[in-house]
Please model this.
Amino acid sequence: MRTDARRHHDPRIRGFASDNYAGAHPEVLAALALANGGHQTAYGEDDYTGHLQRVMHSHFGPTAEAFPVFNGTGANVVALQALTDRWGAVICAESAHINVDEGGAPERMGGLKLLTVPTPDGKLTPELIDRQAYGWDDEHRAMPQVVSITQNTELGTVYTPAEIRAICDHAHERGMKVHLDGARIANAAASLDVPMRAFTTVAGVDVLSFGGTKNGALFGEAVVVLEPDSVRAMKHLRKMSMQLASKMRFVSVQLEALLARDLWLRNARHANAMAQRLAGGVRTVHGVEILHPVQANAVFARLPHDVSERLQKRFRFYFWDETAGDVRWMCAFDTLEEEVDAFVQALKEEMAG
Model:
């Protein structure tokens, strides 16, 4: 029985739930079409993955090597496995994505222990790291071997290059390596107005999980090894972690489309600007509190629970801490000014109602 493909959603409807809700940027879709047709060698030996390496060099330096993967959790698990021994542990913020939002994958699939630290703003510091950085010779404790930070953080805050340099120096002095979860690395670079290498390669980060999906890709991320001596057997780990794409050209060409010119930066700047516009509107609404500095494309706020429930019937977004009444509003590369203004107006109406 023949069935024809048809659209199942209204493309005019957007929300503030997640930048993952957005579709792919038209330039990324055009790149996918360009890579289609004919035959290319499988499993990363294709021309597009080869060219991606040169593009990555332009952003992260000549020693950078990219290993495209399917998704962010896969990138994090592969990267952390590459940096740890079987008995190793990873120090991270309590709010870190690897701890809260990956279904236990780093521990279940990667076989590593997460040592978490509460933070007020999602950011680690050398002093906070030292709460868990001990016991290397204690066989009763998992050995701290990696510090994992997120840029920008899960609370929408951004590390400065100096802050990351301090973390890397501190970790390296103690024999640990540094992993950076860069699911929204483009938004951080746009916020700081510096090249991505300024807070990665130059700052001393060993391995990076590079995010493309939230920045306009259809799917696909990459593990980027910045310090070659810090990892072992990346190709084997990627395969055994079920992250090796046979038709890898379709992951690589998307990252190339974002990075070869300035699409990654245009998308991130727009998303950040929409978050600033949203925050500016929210600040005029009496009874709504913005919880964290708005430094990237996220706005965290606290408002009455019943107001949020009514507002959710008009716009999609998530509770962050439902008990406290905290919510998260995300902007994406395709968020429109009029949609932000309509949301703020709806918030005012529900607060007044």
Notes: The chain has a mean pLDDT of 97.
